[in-house]
TrEMBL record:
Region of interest: Disordered: 36-112
Family membership: Belongs to the UPF0229 family.
The protein's name in its UniProt record: UPF0229 protein SAMN05216361_0986
InterPro entries: UPF0229 (IPR006698)
NCBIfam families membership: PRK05325.1-2 (NF003707), PRK05325.1-3 (NF003708)
HAMAP family on file: UPF0229
Pfam family, one: DUF444
Species this protein is from: Marisediminitalea aggregata
Length: 429
């Protein structure tokens, strides 16, 4: 019987396979816990790992155990307080029957939650699973590079789940043949000589004893070659190759006017940080254009977009006009997949809202794959929301969503970028 002993230097990762099985088996419970944790994070640590908890009842598994069996006689103690037919008083409303000082729970028996930590990569994988850019059109190997995994031969190191048994046994057989070929040839020659001496009528006792000793040594040497060695092990190797995709650009338009208080701006930043992490993790080299606006719009870099304190009045059309100018100047090529995400509290000059609708329907949406608008407010919707709803009714590539609290951000984000059959067929990751 062969025994496999893991003597690799990276022995500290031996539990990786079990961890992956655990994450796969309880993915739904873990995803719910991750979704709940998103809203509790600060803006600065959205992309770090997470300590999550899932109820023990969700990870319990059936267990086989040996029953008592046979015939048994048991004597159960009775009681000296009640007899059949007695009425039992209802327990008091507050407090339990024990000697503790706290109140009893009315929700039945409970169990501690099972808590564990997940890494940054595991957290982001769960966060952005089944998400994709809608309507992404495949055209060429350029800018956006997506990868698919394929078999790429064998390697001498890997995880046990990738061990190729047939290839390893072939290597074992080849090694044993190579190491024992010379000894087997000598063994055959010695056995032939021994047979000839035994058939000879002369006295060859000494020669026969020497040959028998030589044969025994050769057999022991051949038997000493291990059936399988670490050199024989071959693991399936997987590599990634780029698949045809297209060039893509995402426009991020954020309202930074005076009506956007700090809490509203923080929610908008959370949404855009999720969007940025999703794009950079799922796609390679997607261009991102950041536009901040109040009465005037300005293209800024990532640092200024998230951390600048500039503020002012509100004219939303200024951001849409600047987006149109940038498209005409840099992204007019038909190979570009253009996306946009706009965040605002809905406050805008009443005369400017119809102009926003005109800019969207006549200039931006005809060249845009997908335009998402989120309105972050607890107030009643104003003219901008009504104009945008009119646009949504007539355009399939325009979506409006309403956010009132931090807990709404991730569910809305998943609704906006949830992978569909059309996005998968068009090249979604």
């Amino acid at each position: 019987m062969a025994h496999f002993i893991d003597r690799r230097l990276n022995s500290k990762g031996k539990s990786t396979l079990n961890r992956q099985r655990f994450l796969k088996r309880y993915k739904q419970q873990i995803k719910r816990a991750v979704s709940d944790a998103v809203g509790e994070r600060s803006v600065t640590d959205v992309d770090s790992g997470e300590q999550i908890s899932i109820p023990k009842r969700d990870i319990s598994e059936p267990v086989f155990h040996t029953g008592k069996g046979g015939k048994r006689t048991a004597v159960h103690p009775g009681n000296d307080q009640f007899t059949a037919g007695d009425r039992i008083d209802r327990p008091p409303q507050q407090g339990g029957g024990g000697s503790g000082q706290g109140d009893a729970s009315d929700s039945g028996e409970g169990q501690d939650d099972f808590s564990f930590s997940i890494s940054k990569d595991e957290y982001l994988d769960l966060l952005f699973e089944d998400l994709a850019l809608p309507n992404l059109k495949n055209s060429q190997f350029d800018q956006v590079v997506q990868y698919e995994t394929y078999r790429a031969g064998f390697q001498t190191d890997g995880v046990p789940s990738n061990l190729d048994i047939v290839r390893s046994l072939k290597g074992s057989m080849a090694r044993r043949i190579a190491l024992t070929a010379g000894d087997r040839r000598k063994l055959r020659e010695c056995e032939e000589k021994l047979e000839a001496l035994r058939n000879d009528k002369h006295d060859n006792t000494v020669a026969i004893l020497e040959l028998e000793q030589t044969i025994a040594k050769l057999k022991a040497k051949i038997a000493g070659v291990p059936f399988i060695d670490t050199f024989d092990l071959r693991f399936k190797n997987y590599a990634k190759k780029p698949v045809p995709t297209s060039k893509a650009v995402m426009f991020c338009l954020m309202d930074v006017s005076g009506s956007m208080d700090q809490a509203t701006k923080d929610m908008a930043k959370r949404f855009y940080i999720l969007l940025y992490l999703f794009l950079t993790r799922t796609y390679e080299n997607v261009e991102v254009v950041y536009i901040r606006h109040h009465t005037q719009a300005k293209e800024v870099d990532e640092q200024e977009f998230f951390y600048s304190q500039e503020t002012g009045g509100t004219i939303v059309s200024s951001a849409l006009k600047l987006m149109d100018e940038i498209i005409q100047a840099r992204y007019q090529d038909s190979d570009w997949n253009i996306y946009a995400a706009q965040a605002s509290d809905g406050d805008n000059w009443a005369d400017d809202s119809p102009q926003c609708r005109e800019l969207l329907t006549k200039k931006l949406l005809p060249v845009t794959r997908y335009f998402a608008y989120i309105e972050i407010t607890e107030r009643q919707h104003q003219s901008l929301w009504r104009e945008y709803q009119t646009v949504e009714e007539g355009c399939e590539n325009f979506v409006c969503k309403h956010i009132t609290s931090v807990n709404d951000i991730y569910p809305v984000f998943r609704e906006l970028f949830e992978k569909t059959n059309s996005s998968t067929a068009s090249g979604g990751s």
